[in-house]
Design brief:
Blueprint: H1 7-12, E1 15-19, H2 24-35, E2 39-44, H3 49-56, E3 60-63, E4 76-79, H4 88-95, E5 100-102, H5 103-111, E6 115-120, H6 125-138, E7 144-151, E8 155-158, E9 164-168, E10 183-186, H7 200-212, E11 219-223, H8 227-232, E12 239-244, E13 250-258, E14 261-268, E15 271-278, H9 283-298, H10 303-311, E16 321-326, E17 329-334, H11 339-352, E18 358-362, H12 367-372, H13 374-378, E19 386-389, H14 399-404, H15 407-416, E20 421-423, H16 427-437, E21 443-447, H17 453-463
Parallel strand pairs: 1-2, 1-4, 2-3, 4-5, 6-9, 6-10, 7-9, 10-11, 11-12, 12-13, 17-21, 18-19, 18-21, 19-20
Antiparallel strand pairs: 7-8, 13-14, 14-15, 16-17
């Protein structure tokens, strides 16, 4: 049922039910479906602000997932990637012979009717997506968008009246292979999701298929200095724009961090376009900006329009977000959960706040990711003065995986890299510890894909 050609199911459905409607992506899809004139309902196991907002839009949301939530007048059921076939609503839909689509399948079918822009890569997807959303909104293209983070003053999704649909493409379970965009972006390719992929070659194979999904009259925009990307684009016949610092059609030169902004000069095919200042820190965000500039060039925008679209960008929550300054202590929160992301975040914080003690509270995300990348995680904190690690955030892993690694093993490995590290299992203990050791001038960073920002917020509350 899930592999059927679903174009007509979305077009013809008048009543759609979404299982896992409280998720960031699925909630955004619900709003798009309402805009398309569908009657939408959904269910989730947890109440949240997202559900509160959906209810205000007139969407019926059931708390808890039960078979009686699936009514016979439902024409289509869409489920989040976290929903398994043993879910009672999924089973009931099968029993009633209601068509079932996964979230990426449904988004992919909507994209077929739009000018799709899909941003893929191991790192930088959310910020790059958000920069493109801001650029197109500022220029009144009125895009719809579904991304994995909360853009400041915009949220994680939006419904526009224009022809563009901007989607952050996740490689987990090859979800992004459901998308057939006009503009495909690949920011980088590294080892990740090794609970699903066999190895880096398997990951590259998935990205190769994603690139080949680009519409024949479309474009691929990619990071020119990534070896893994270069391995797979040799045979790609699609039109391309590459970017980088030393290689690529688009180059970012004379990079500087000044007054909490990143500044660089942009060149396209060796011609200087101009200088740009973004409200983001770090070289990695220069690359994210270059990808967005590539979209602007493909769409034929003027340099001044592109510049204004990027310079007006306010950022994304949980991406090097300053949560507060109190008593000379700066508290920052970040979503980074891969060794490369941690290194990049620490590097830019040290550039913005030189000569200040940096205390990092890192919550590992997934036991399998921690185990597969243990050595890389252990060496990613070289710029930190102290590292605090709570228990690993348990998501998507089996109980067997949970027995193979723990936070104490990671702490021991970090210490072997000559870094001061401590294991404190609970958030409460970490807040107490931070209150004991804090001193004027500290920069405290909480980092991880789990709810580690709670530590930052509670610590700020305590010192206030």
């Amino acid at each position: 049922m899930e592999n059927m050609n679903s174009v007509n199911y979305i077009k013809n459905a008048t009543r759609v039910h979404l299982i896992g409607i409280g998720g960031i992506g699925v909630s955004g899809l619900a709003k798009i479906l309402v805009h398309m004139g569908k009657k939408v309902s959904g269910s989730d196991n947890n109440y949240s602000n997202i559900i509160k907002k959906l209810k205000k839009k007139g969407i019926k949301v059931y708390l808890g997932q039960k078979e009686e939530n699936i009514k016979e007048d439902i024409n289509l059921v869409i489920h989040s990637q976290a929903i398994l076939p043993d879910n009672p609503e999924y089973k009931k839909a099968k029993e009633l012979n209601i068509p079932i689509l996964s979230y990426p399948q449904a988004v992919g079918e909507i994209m077929r009717e739009k000018r799709g822009i899909t941003i893929a890569g191991t790192h930088g997807k959310t910020t790059t997506s958000a920069l493109i959303v801001n650029l197109l909104k500022r220029l009144h293209f009125s895009p719809s968008f579904l991304i994995g983070g909360e853009i400041i003053n915009m949220g994680n999704s939006g419904v526009g009246n224009g022809e563009f649909l901007i989607v952050e493409g996740c490689e987990y379970k090859r979800s992004f292979l459901n998308y057939f965009p006009e503009i495909s972006i690949v920011t980088n390719i590294e080892k990740d999701h090794l609970d699903y992929y066999k190895d880096i070659e398997d990951i590259k194979s998935a990205f190769s298929k994603f690139i080949n999904n680009t519409k024949h009259n479309g474009i691929l925009i990619y990071f020119a200095e990534d070896k893994n990307i270069n391995d797979i684009i040799k045979e790609v016949k699609t039109k391309k724009i590459s970017y980088g610092f030393t290689l690529g059609d688009l180059k970012g030169l004379n990079f500087k961090i000044r007054n909490m902004e990143t500044e660089f000069e942009c060149y396209y095919k060796e011609k200087r376009l101009g200088k740009i200042k973004i409200n983001l820190w770090g070289k990695h965000n220069t690359l994210n900006s270059l990808a967005a500039i590539g979209v602007g060039i493909y769409l034929g925008l003027l340099w001044e329009e592109i510049k204004e679209g990027l310079e007006s960008f306010k950022g994304v929550h949980r991406r090097c977000e300053i949560l507060g300054n109190k008593d000379g202590i700066t508290v920052i929160d970040d979503y980074g959960h891969h060794p490369t992301e941690i290194k990049a975040t620490l590097e830019c914080i040290k550039q913005v706040f030189p000569n200040r003690r940096l205390i990092v509270v890192f919550q590992p995300h997934q036991y399998s990711r921690t185990r597969f990348l243990l050595k890389d995680f252990a060496s990613s904190f070289s710029l930190a003065d102290k590292v605090v690690v709570p228990d690993i955030y348990f998501v998507r892993d089996s109980l067997i995986e949970k027995k193979l690694v723990n936070a104490e093993i990671l702490v021991e490995k970090i210490r072997k890299n000559c870094k001061e590290a401590i294991y404190l299992p609970t958030f409460k203990e970490i807040v107490e510890y931070l209150c004991e050791i804090k001193r004027k001038g500290d920069v405290i960073l909480t980092i991880g894909a789990g709810p580690i920002d709670k530590v930052a917020k509670e610590f700020l509350k305590r010192i206030s």
